[in-house]
Amino acid sequence: MITRQELEQVHQRILPHIHRTPVLTSHLINEISGSDLYFKCENFQRMGAFKMRGAANAILNLSKDKQRKGVVTHSSGNFAQAISLAAKSLGVPAYIVMPSSAPEVKKAAVRTYGGKITECPPNLKDREDTAKKIMEETGATFLHPSNDLDVIYGQGTAAIELLEEQPELEYIITPVGGGGLLAGTALAIKHFGIKCKSIGAEPFEADDAYRSLKNGKIETNTSTNTIADGLKTQLGDKNFPLIQELVQEIIRVEESEIKQAMKLIWERMKIIVEPSSAVALAAVLREKEKFKGKKTGIIISGGNVDLRNLPF
Amino acid sequence: MITRQELEQVHQRILPHIHRTPVLTSHLINEISGSDLYFKCENFQRMGAFKMRGAANAILNLSKDKQRKGVVTHSSGNFAQAISLAAKSLGVPAYIVMPSSAPEVKKAAVRTYGGKITECPPNLKDREDTAKKIMEETGATFLHPSNDLDVIYGQGTAAIELLEEQPELEYIITPVGGGGLLAGTALAIKHFGIKCKSIGAEPFEADDAYRSLKNGKIETNTSTNTIADGLKTQLGDKNFPLIQELVQEIIRVEESEIKQAMKLIWERMKIIVEPSSAVALAAVLREKEKFKGKKTGIIISGGNVDLRNLPF
């Protein structure tokens, strides 16, 4: 397992390429929750999500030769933007495989950040085949959005910063989708927390992580009918063992609770957060007794939403 | 004119009752504008707008006897909420005269903050008569949203904080509606700026301040067909002389420019701002040459918007 010193080095390495995001609080949400909440605002991160951290670390860790040949990923979400922007900052080519069905706004964002898009039919097999073909042609390195140790370590640096500002935190809650943020946060808590525990939050509609922990093996989602579109993916063999060892609990929340928490953050904190980000606050509001009077950190994972399609 | 020391005292007096709001920056908006912008986020202020500052100062400056009898204002916007919350924090009764046509959401906000609403027909004469009647019955003191020196001084404290963090600012731009924020900011710049100038920004559709400065007398708006609903009011005899003496310029912007600037702030900074707040950034984007390479402060005045009725 990565040491505290190595995790500190990860943080130092990516610092020039990321924002140190602010930690916000809200009197009113504290009143409503009965808790003492600290929101680490990764929605203010470069390209609008924590994924910038892991992407930067993974690319920085490649050899100069590998960097020259570039990186490839298949994603239609935040990781595609993160890889594009991190690669651009470092002068590395970024090849992004996107399903032809991806919204134009997401393609445009990747293009803005300098990613080279290859479109493919919208299914996993075609995405993987297309990525493989690019790797063969260019020698580019494949980077996975959540099941890659360098990515996981990078994601953990948000919690390092949060614990530097609030060392007395008793919990840090993150949303869990592919498991990269949760595993990285749990590692950061292990090394930088004093009395802090790691908790994951996910929708009932995509509760693979909850079932994976319960059953001791990686479970999949049969349906993913959730507004939290960043949390539909499943855990991987790199992050699941870390989550098993270091995470105390996964709290599941209803869709209505996610929408309510999201509206509360928008209306009261005046910040724009993705539905996935609201899942962590929804967990606090659902389990009020557990968090009553506790200092609790919440990682606001991102703020990339379609403003013309809001759930309220 | 108020001295630097007196203005410092105002700031110290209200500090326990307000948030010290963060100053945010955006690489991308700096790139787009060619300027070096510092956004003072009063949308994160208590009740969501800078008006909290002036309201707190005005109530704190009343004698204990006057405080006991309460305060009254007629407003359907942020000042009603600010007076209600500031009065509640200080244990002072707040009487708010609102037009019967005011949206239920605004009435609800005033009630949440403890204001006692009296409804009246939606015209200025009835609002003033109703306020007068309440003053006679209760002995409450009338507070004007923008044409009151204590309110003006309170509003200026946002710029004091901004200049403490960024003493080298060359401009601070604020939206101008009733003139309280602009006059207060200009005073703060005079006493706390090193080489800073005060600029106002307003819609062409409500350009009374621009015409007032040009013609040397307080002008009114004949039409106010603007999305910036906080900027439809006119200057008053207390703030106009300060604006005349201390403000360098009023920049006017088109409605399309306001919407574009608002969208840019929402999408790129991930913060929720009112249309009125976006007017200041719209001014920078309209007059790029003027602000090119300059360190410029922007007061984001507030973040109270109806999320179900966005202009984009």
Automatic annotation (TrEMBL), chains A, B:
Every Tryptophan synthase beta chain-like PALP domain range: 14-302
The protein's name: Pyridoxal-phosphate dependent enzyme
Cited InterPro entries: TrpB-like_PALP, TrpB-like_PALP_sf
Keywords: Pyridoxal phosphate
Cofactor(s) required, per the database record: pyridoxal 5'-phosphate
SUPFAM superfamilies: Tryptophan synthase beta subunit-like PLP-dependent enzymes (SSF53686)
Keyword Membrane set for record: no
Pfam families: PALP
Keyword Transcription: no
